[in-house]
Structure formats: structure tokens, C-alpha cells
Amino acid sequence: PRCHSTSSERVDHATIFAEEAPYVAECARCRLRYTVSTKIENWDEFYDDGYAPYQKRLKHHRGEIRARWLAERIGPWLAERLAPTRFPLPFGNGRALEIGCGAGSDLRRMVDLGWEATGIEPNPSAAEKARRWSDAPILVDLFPSPRLHNESFQLIVAQQVIEHLDSIDRIGNEFARLLAPGGRLFISVPNSECWSARMFGPAWIGWDVPRHRTHFTRQTLARWAREAGLIVDSISTKSHANWISQSASQLNAGGRTSLFTRRRWASLANRYTAWIDQGDSLLLWARKPAITKAAA
């Protein structure tokens, strides 16, 4: 953790079935949760071409296309109210960057909403899919990348990405470097204090160790953004019925029985977690100050 404390405690409900497997610990000082594991020599085996996000089904989202058509005729403010989309990003005409764009599904949606979008993706096969699907430039590289220029983006998006990255404080500083003054950051990460994490324990798919190296709570995500010099506008949660059903399936595979493998029960749990604001994902909106301290 960033505080460099050597004191930590194991997160009980994240204990993995196998005793020798990686586990999740929580720093006693800053409360950041992180994966403790033996050194892994080859991370590529965890992110090969068969990795699920690279196989994501690609389809055009009519909602964004219709909303953009309206925005071009009546303006984005009115279009957002007459034709709201399920996608969490707003209309835009500036430069946007998606970190870990995978096969390009969300990058295409950003283009459809009017953004001049660029993606960065380390997997060459996924990057090529994203390039063909989104018609946006793709940088095949790891993040952070020195090939990205200071203050060059009005919007940066990282959905279910930063929990995979090392040196999380460096990642926050990199976002601050790349955002133009007043630029916005949208982050989604698994919510390690959600209802599903406690209900399914180590079977909750949001842990996904050892791929996920940092496990955020609402408090640690907000502190991470503020320590990078960003202003936190909002943090909310989002529920995923498919996460609930998949976690239940993993629980069953571990020898325990769960009703939530059934679509009806998973849907009910999804609605319940949304109602109590205990969804599986945390959604952060933050922004870079319009006038930075250096400029002032």
C-alpha cells in the first residue's frame, strides 16, 4: 500500500478455498485491500487471447446512435434528457482516452456519442479487433505509457481496469498528468465491501485473484483519487445480475449450494443490492481542477 505500512490483516470473507492460493489482505493503517501472492513470472497466461473481456460480443448500440443524431440537431443538453442512454458517459466533442479498451465495445459507444476517442490496449489481438470495430486509433502498449502526452484528454475512462495494475498511486498521478484542466475521469472497479462479496465469500467473481491486485472500497477509492490531486464529484454503485449468478455457480463448484444460480433469484438479488446501494461495482466520477496549483 501507498502508506508503506507492514501491518495488515487477512480479509476473512475473501479467503480462498485452497490454503496455498493467493489471498486478500487489508492494510491496518490506510485500509487499502490488496492481493498477497507468490511472485508470478509470466502474467501473459492470465491475459491470453481467450481472456473473457477480449471475447466480448460486439454490437452497435442504437441508444447512443439515436442520442447522437438528436444531439446534432437539438443540442446535447436536450438530447440527454429526451433520449437518455444506459451508457454512463455523456455526449462530447473533445478528446477521450479509454484505458484497457479490450475488443472496443465501449470505445465504439464513445465514438457514437461524439468523442474523438483513442484506446490503449496491451493485447495485440484485442487491439486489432478494437481498431476494426471502433474506427478509432489504438495504442498497443501497457499503461502508463510515455507515448501519451500531458493534458491531452478531456475525458479518460477506465472500466474494470485499474484493479489489474501495479503501483496504484502512480496510476492516479498518470491520470492527473494526462487530463486537461477541467477534464473528467470515469472509473469503475469491483466493490470489495458489497453485499455479494460478503454473501459469496471467496467465490465472488469480483476478487479474481491474482489478476486483481488492488481491491477498493468506497473510502479507499475516494482517497486514491484525492491523493492524485483530483476532485471527486461522485461515487455510486452498480449491480450486475450476471456477477451474482456466476458467483453462485462458483460457490456451488466449491461444494456449497446457492439459489442465486437461477435467473429469477439473481435478478431479485440484483434489484435488492441496487436498492441498498451495495452493487458489485463502484463508479467514480472525478475531475482535474480547471486551474492547477502549478499554474496558479
Question: How are the SSEs placed, and which strands pair?
Answer:
Layout: E1 8-10, E2 23-27, E3 33-36, H1 62-74, H2 76-82, E4 95-99, H3 105-112, E5 116-120, H4 124-134, E6 138-139, E7 153-159, H5 168-178, E8 179-190, H6 195-200, E9 214-215, H7 218-227, E10 231-238, H8 241-253, H9 263-275, E11 281-287
Parallel strand pairs: 4-5, 4-7, 5-6, 7-8
Antiparallel strand pairs: 1-2, 2-3, 3-9, 8-11, 10-11
Helix pairs in contact: 1-2, 8-9
Description:
The chain is 31% helix and 20% strand. By secondary structure, the protein is an alpha/beta fold. The strands form two sheets. Strands 6-5-4-7-8-11-10 form a seven-stranded mixed beta sheet, sandwiched between helices. Helix 1 (62-74) crosses helix 2 (76-82) and helix 8 crosses helix 9 (263-275). It is globular, with a radius of gyration of 19 Å.
